[in-house]
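User:
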Amino acid sequence: MTATIDPSVRSLTADSAKNLTLKQVIQTIPKVYFQKDPLKAWRSVLLSVAAVVLGYGAIALSPWFLLPLAWFFTGTALTGFFVVGHDCGHRSFANRRWVNNWVGHLVFLPLIYPFHSWRLLHDIHHRHTNNLDIDNAWAPWTVTEYGQANGALQAIYRGMRGWGWWLASVAHWAVLHFNLNRFEPRDRPKVLRSILLVGGFALVFFPTLAVIAGPWGIVKYWLMPWLGYHFWMSTFTLVHHTLPEIVFQPTATWNEAEAQLSGTLHCDYPRWIELLCHDINVHVPHHISVGIPSYHLRSAYGALQQEWGPLIKHTRFSWQLMKTITGQCHLYHPDLAYQRFADLKHL
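Assistant: Predicted structure:
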């Protein structure tokens, strides 16, 4: 499946994006969509809490053959926790920083995610979206980098770019977010606090769950829903910036407006997923400005479509889409955007 553009809006060439500035694009979004609405923000929290409670109730009451459905629903609901924390990390949840920090930490705890670690690393992704040299979210390896990696790393990379894409978020979480050396010295104290808070939560939560429900309880009530959450984390973040025609650029040729407007993909999912995940799939306006709260993303997207429609890529989630991405989008190619593993003749 390839992305489609709306032909009804004014005509723009692909090269037009190279002449844009991000400020010009932002100015076409009505200011009302940048305004925070506390009622809508806290309503999203209540929706996620209710969905998670419902999910865990389903896990507790379901016969064994319905458990996969209950796990998947609960994992999707937990992804809503992440999206609330995502708004907090971008300071688009509340006006007060301490509210953003505390809510962000609380909703990240069940996910065992250090809030400040994620917030700071995710900011790099936004400032350098689709920059081949800097972006830390699904940037493809070059053929040279792949060739220089050892066999084990090559196998891991092939898995994350292929059939095992849904586990890539777990690797990203484990490798990046608990290493203080990945952060600037000035940021390390707050990162350490987030890590210690997650560690303290884990030291209480897991033994308690084991005592109450046994080892199987940890798998049943935490691990499987957590993997469901990471399925969506991996899928959303992969699809947000990956199609055979979405090009990563080295720093020398990278353009901010082009990357945020044309290097970000809008993908429609089943409505119940979009509801539980607070429209995180409406990703183009979020990359134009992280100051837009999640509950305004659809309206902001409509405004962007009217002005910049031909530069925006829009598709619908399907297994054919995932087959296309995981079957073709493997290694960076300067002319074709991507090169498949199968086309490497010399490695």
